[in-house]
Amino acid sequence: MAQLSAPTPLLVTHVTDGFDCGEPLLNDWLKKRALKNENSGASRTFVVCQDNHVMGYYVLATGSVMHKQAPRKVRRNMPEPVPVMILGRLAVSKHMQSTGIGRGLLRDAILRTLGVSKQAGIKALLVHALSDAAHKFYLQCGFIESPLDTMVLMITLNDAERHL
Fold first, then answer.
1. pTM: predicted TM-score of the whole model, two decimal places
2. Which of 101, 138, 144, 160 is catalytic?
3. What is the arithmetic mean of pLDDT over 48-75?
4. Which of 14, 15, 90, 98 is at a distance of 20 to 30 A from 37, taking alpha carbons?
């Protein structure tokens, strides 16, 4: 079995057709929207591959969150709205789940976000969990729930850096 690549930006040469994480929404987005969003500048997708076949991916985009949506730790001493990096999606192929790839992808997303935060203001990383399992994963990784929607979770970059 070939080794996994390090996370790299999605290219047209990456094979996405066979990707199946068990969540049709995430599968379809990778296959139908990821490259379009890359080309338009709406988001950036990073993939890990085995023989050029995508085994996992995550998506980053900049955004903001209103104070009322942010946990106190995120909104404290921050302007309205609070600048955040959005982890739009994170998915791992079914046969590669529970191998640490998801945590590795999250770690890479945090490192890239920390890099961007040295050039532009970003207080936290924000994610919308699509399932109870995803919600549990992010809580275990140090994220905290939004006071308005428990499926929206955030982690300050200071806390994220400590969790690396």
1. 0.95
2. 138
3. 97
4. 98
